[in-house]
Amino acid sequence: MREFIAIELPESVREALRREQARFREVCPDARWTRPEGIHLTLKFLGDTSSQQETQVKDALSRMAPFEKFTVRVQGFGFFPDAKRPRVFWAGLDAPPALAQLAAQVESALAPLGFAPENRPFKPHLTLARFKVPRPQPKLEALLAVQNQPLLGTFEVSEFFLWESRLLPGGAEYHKVASFP
Which of 66, 129, 150, 164 is the most buried (most CB within 10 A)? Predict the structure, then answer.
């Protein structure tokens, strides 16, 4: 099973992202656009896991210290690694330090189970599209340059989930495995 840990988005944020993707898709049809129902805030990608590992992951996450609820704003857009050779087009997140702390807690809880910590700093984002070939996207950049950075919504984080990802011909399908309030 392919699994990851993520925060689910409310439908209002998904709908705002859906509208923005429709505008962007017109100027950038070659990108692989993420289905809006599949957009989530990833805390940790685990990859292929066995049933035994899944049980260990659930146990480790359930033993984590509780976290205080916090609010996240969805605003702005950008590229990873940069606009000159983008691989990912994303919506930005403005979050308090509590989000990065939660991601660090997840990393720490899972490291003893053999899930290597990320070697890059945590950069919260929502993936909107991926590019097969990392080359500049001048039409998309031009569209971003003429618009302000609209607020696409806010949401409160009070829980996160262990998800299973199934790769299908039409794209990935996600299922919640467990929740952690």
Answer: 129
